[in-house]
Amino acid sequence: MSPVLGWTKSALLEVQEYVLMVGKVGRACVTRPFYFRDMIEQFESIGVGSLTVVLLTGMFTGMVLALQSGITLDKFGARSMVGQLVSASMVKELGPVLTGLIVAGRVGSGIAAELGSMMVTEQIAALRALGTDPIRKLVLPRLLAGLFMVPVLTVVSCGIGMVGAWIVTITQLKVPSSVYWNSVVAGLYIQDVWMGLIKPFFIGFTITSIGCHVGMRTYGGTQGVGRATTNAVVAASVAVIAVDFLVTKLLIAMMY
Predict the structure, then answer these.
(1) Whole-structure pTM over 0.85, yes or no?
(2) Residue 75 CB-density burial (10 A; 0-12 exposed, 13-18 middle, 19+ buried)
(3) Nearest of 150, 167, 151 to residue 59 by alpha carbon
(4) Per-residue pLDDT tens over the stretch 10-37
(5) Left if phi > 0, otherwise alpha if psi is -120 to 50, otherwise beta: which for 188?
(6) What CA–CA distance (Å, rounded) separates 212 from 235?
(7) Contact, 134 vs 216, CB < 8 A?
(8) Is 220 helix (H, G, I), strand (E, B) or coil?
């Protein structure tokens, strides 16, 4: 068998297993039993656990965006438009994508390492032997946490980014506070807000589903866990950018 053919078959097998896992999760969503304690734990781990790094990322992104755009807009005598540029950029694009990449690095790797360790130490096989469905117990809580917490983290990131930009604007660019906030409001349309709120749902689902899939397919002992963790972060990061493009194209066609 040629290397190309072997790689193609392997890739198709991964896609097939991923789709099957998502199908099992969909069935687990609407049938009992539900593990509410595990769900709450994952909401806390993925949502609250990622809050600090998301706040710092959003803050510094807003600050550097205001600084750079202020220099550029000065050439056109439009320094007062900084708020408009920052709000549109953060809400539509930078907020969802940067939050997704940060969560992919922190949460995607954690999920893959956790589930991968359980696979190689045969804890998941033990769960099956005891009659517990690993999809319901391990995968569904993580998927739901990613689906609902990434949008919340994105809103927080966008908000703190605008506050960071405001600090730079009034201290470095010497633009009055009221002018900045009026510009922020003027730069946002309802379609932009919807785009900023809808995209994180797809991004959060993508990150956690890839992390779970890679974790549940781990083999080869501790070396396999390291390989799975790396693969999960790389795949989730690329998928975040790809999903962002596809969903943006779809939403532009539907709303604009």
Answers:
(1) yes
(2) exposed
(3) 167
(4) 888 888 888 888 888 888 788 888 788 8
(5) beta
(6) 12
(7) yes
(8) coil
